[in-house]
C-alpha cells in the first residue's frame, strides 16, 4: 500500500510538473481542442517519462497509489489545469478500474492492457438524446444476445473522447421489459466495429472539447465483451459513479484552487495595489467565500474517500462531495472572473474564461445537482434509494 509520505511527495511533484509543462502550454492545448494531438501527445509522453502518468491505475496495471484517500490530494494537483487529467492519464482512471474489476480475461488483455500502456483511449456511453440522463431506466439503446454476440442499436450523446477513443463502454438495455435493476448491461464496443459511427461533435458553451454524438447500427461484439454479469449494469453504474464523482470532484477542487490563487495574485499585483483591492471589504468577501467553499468541499471529498477506502456505503457522502466540489468550483471561478474584470472573460488573456464555462457544466455532468440533492434528501429523511 502507498504510504501517505510517498503520496504527498507525488502530489508536490505533480504540482511542480504541471506548473512547468502544462500551464505554459495551455493556450496551445486549448487551440488543439478535441483533436488533442501534437502538444498533448508530446506532454503525455513526457508525463509518462517523469513517472507521473496513470498514478491511480490499479496496481497490477502500473498504478502507484492504492488508496483513494491518498490519491485525492494528487488528483487536486492534476486538476489545477483543465488539461491536467488528460495529460496525466487520469481521465481514463475509472475505465481502468472498471475493466480490472469486471472485465473478462480476454477483455483485460484486449482493452485494459493497451489502456494502461497509454495506447488506447476509452469512452463511456450512457447519455442519450432520447432519454433522461438522471433516470437510467429510460435508456433506450438495446443489446440483444444472438449467436454468441451482442447486437447493439441506439444513439448516445455528449460522450467524452468518443472521436479519439479505441473503445466505448456502452450502457444498453438487454432485457426489454424488466425493471432497470435487472435490465441494463455494460458492453465494450471497439470503435472500429462496423456499424459504429461518430455522428458529430457537440460543443460545450461554444468550445469543442471532444464530446460527441455516436450511433450504433447493428453493431456486433462477442458475448464476453459484457462487464460483470449480463443485466446487472445498474450496480456497475452506481459503482462507477461513486469513484467517478470523487475523482472528478478532486480535479474540480484543484481547478477551483487555481482560480482562488489567481484571484489572490491579482489582488496583490501592482494593479491590485493601485486600486487598494486588498483593503476593500467586498474583495475580502470574494476571498472568504471562495476559501470557505473550497475548504468545506475538500473536507467532504476526503470524508467520502475514507468511506470508499473502508468499503463503507458512500453514496450519500460521495454525492455531497460532488455537489460541494462543483459549487466550490463555480464560486471560485465566478469570483476570480469578477476580480479580473474584462480580462477574466477573455480566453486570450486568462484561463479563467475557459474554467468558468467548465465550472457551469460541472453542475450537470456525472449527475445533475438536482438528481443528487433529491437522492441525498430522500436518504436523509429515511427513504432508501439506490438510484445513482
Ligand atoms: C461536458 C459534459 C460531458 C459529458 N460527458 C459524458 C460522457 O462522457 N458520457 C456520458 O454518458 N454522458 C456524458 N455527459 C452527459 C451527462 O452525464 C448528462 O448530461 C447528465 O447525466 C444529465 O442528463 P441529461 O442531460 O439527460 O439531463 P436530465 O437528466 O434530463 O436533466 C434535465 C433537468 O431535469 C432535472 N431532473 C431530471 N431528473 C430529476 C429528478 N429525478 N429530480 C430532480 N430534477 C431532475 C435535472 O436536474 C436537470 O435540471 C456529459 C455532459 C456534459 C455537459
State the gist of this model:
The chain is of the alpha+beta class and 388 residues long. The chain contains 13 helices and eight strands.
Low-confidence stretches: none
Looking across the biggest beta sheet, what order are the strands in? 1-4-5-8
Q: How many helix segments?
A: 13
Using the 3D structure, state the CATH architecture of the largest domain.
Up-down Bundle
Please report which band the strand proportion falls in: under 5%, 5-15%, 15-25%, 25-35%, 35-45% or over 45%: 15-25%
Number of domains: 3
Query: What class do helices, strands and sheet pairing give?
Result: alpha+beta
- Most strands sheet: 4 strands, mixed
Mean pLDDT across all amino acids: 95
Morphology: globular
**Total strand segments:** 8
C-alpha-based Rg, rounded: 21 Å
CATH class of the largest domain: Mainly Alpha
Distance between the termini: 30 Å
Oligomer: single chain
Hetero groups bound?
flavin-adenine dinucleotide
The CATH H-level homologous superfamily of the largest domain: Butyryl-CoA Dehydrogenase, subunit A, domain 3
Amino acid at each position: 500500500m502507498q504510504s501517505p509520505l510517498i503520496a504527498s511527495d507525488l502530489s508536490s511533484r505533480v504540482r511542480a510538473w504541471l506548473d512547468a509543462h502544462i500551464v505554459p502550454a495551455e493556450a496551445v492545448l486549448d487551440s488543439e481542442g478535441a483533436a488533442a494531438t501534437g502538444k498533448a501527445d508530446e506532454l503525455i509522453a513526457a508525463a509518462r517519462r517523469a513517472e507521473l502518468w496513470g498514478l491511480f491505475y490499479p496496481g497490477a496495471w502500473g498504478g502507484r497509489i492504492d488508496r483513494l484517500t491518498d490519491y485525492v490530494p494528487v488528483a487536486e494537483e492534476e486538476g489545477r489545469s483543465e488539461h491536467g487529467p488528460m495529460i496525466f492519464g487520469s481521465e481514463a482512471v475509472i475505465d481502468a478500474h472498471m475493466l480490472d474489476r469486471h472485465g473478462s480475461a480476454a477483455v483485460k488483455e484486449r482493452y485494459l492492457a493497451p489502456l494502461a500502456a497509454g495506447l488506447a483511449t476509452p469512452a463511456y456511453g450512457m447519455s442519450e438524446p432520447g432519454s433522461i440522463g438522471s433516470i437510467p431506466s429510460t435508456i433506450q439503446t438495446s443489446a440483444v444476445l444472438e449467436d454468441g454476440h451482442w447486437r447493439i442499436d441506439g444513439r448516445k450523446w455528449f460522450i467524452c473522447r468518443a472521436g479519439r477513443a479505441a473503445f466505448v463502454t456502452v450502457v444498453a438495455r438487454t432485457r426489454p421489459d424488466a425493471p432497470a435493476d435487472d435490465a441494463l448491461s455494460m458492453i465494450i464496443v471497439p470503435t472500429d466495429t462496423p456499424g459504429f459511427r461518430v455522428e458529430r461533435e457537440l460543443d460545450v458553451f461554444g468550445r469543442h472539447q471532444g464530446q460527441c454524438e455516436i450511433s450504433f447500427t447493428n453493431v456486433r461484439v462477442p458475448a464476453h465483451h459484457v462487464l460483470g454479469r449480463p443485466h446487472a449494469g445498474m450496480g456497475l453504474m452506481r459503482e462507477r459513479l461513486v469513484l467517478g464523482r470523487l475523482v472528478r470532484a478532486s480535479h474540480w477542487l484543484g481547478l477551483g484552487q487555481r482560480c482562488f490563487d489567481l484571484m489572490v495574485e491579482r489582488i496583490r499585483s501592482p494593479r491590485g495595489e493601485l486600486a487598494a483591492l486588498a483593503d476593500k471589504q467586498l474583495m475580502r468577501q470574494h476571498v472568504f467565500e471562495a476559501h470557505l467553499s473550497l475548504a468545506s468541499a475538500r473536507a467532504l471529498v476526503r470524508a467520502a474517500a475514507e468511506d470508499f477506502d473502508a468499503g463503507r456505503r458512500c453514496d450519500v457522502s460521495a454525492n455531497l462531495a460532488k455537489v460541494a466540489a462543483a459549487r466550490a468550483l463555480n464560486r471560485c471561478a465566478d469570483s476570480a472572473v469578477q476580480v479580473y474584470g474584462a480580462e477574466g472573460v477573455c480566453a486570450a488573456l486568462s484561463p479563467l474564461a475557459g474554467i468558468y464555462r467548465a465550472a457551469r457544466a460541472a453542475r450537470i455532468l456525472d449527475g445533475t445537482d438536482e438528481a443528487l440533492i433529491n437522492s441525498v434528501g430522500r436518504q436523509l429523511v429515511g427513504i432508501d434509494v439506490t438510484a445513482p
